[in-house]
Each structure stands twice: as structure tokens, then as C-alpha cells.
Amino acid sequence: MSVYVQNGEEEKSCEVFLQSRKVGIELTYLMVLTVLGFRERVFKKMARRISITWNAMIRRYTHQGHPDMALALFEEMSSSNGKNTPNYVTLVCVLSACSRAGAVQKGMDIFKSMRARFGLEPRPEHYACIVDLLDVPG
Known about the structure:
Elements lengths: L1 H5 L3 H13 L6 H8 L3 H6 L5 H13 L3 H12 L9 H14 L2 H9 L1 H5 L5 H11 L4
Helix pairs in contact: 5-6, 5-7, 6-7, 7-8, 7-10, 8-10
């Protein structure tokens, strides 16, 4: 996959990624980030997105200093009629985006809705994000 990306053939890289999923090869979140170098155009070209690809893009936007884009992508993912249900990693990524954006109220609203909206129990990583979110200069 990395060879395809390095040669500007992201579509072929996506095909390899999706084929690996079809035959049962599990790629980790870190593999997707490092091997694909996950670019926006790769994500947009994907016919079928799974949580790992959504999470990779949300994380990428956050770490590149575009938390508002990460939050917008999270909203798109969340409103996809159950096709792409956020998981605990998604929520860590989006709470980090809220922290980076200084969106304290948005982050708290998302955190409070984890159980009801997504059926997810907060984990230590989510609480750590909330601590970071509330640690604003004052």
C-alpha cells in the first residue's frame, strides 16, 4: 500500500486496503495511519468508509491544527444513518479535537451523550481528554 501512495496511486492503495478487509486481514489504526499516510483525497475517493478510516481522518485533521474540520467530519460520520457508528477511538479523537479548538461546551456535550447517543461507556482515555479540555488557561 505504501508503494502505491508513494507513487501517487492512492486509489490502488485504497483497493488493497479494502480487499484486505474482505479477506479478513485486520489492519490496525496505526497501520492505516502510517502505511497510507492517510490523505484527504484518499479518504474522499473511498467508496466504502469504515470506522478506522473515519478515525484516521478525524485524528489527522486534529493533529494538523484543523480541529473544526475534525468536528465537522465527526458530525458527518454520526449522521450517516447508522452506517458508520462512532466507536471509543472516534470519541477520543473528537474530544481531543474539541480540546484543541477550545470548544469546551461542545466537548462536554459529546462526552455526556456517549452512553445515550452511541451506547459507549467512557474509558480512562475519554476522562483524560476531558481533563485536557477543562485545562484551559484562565
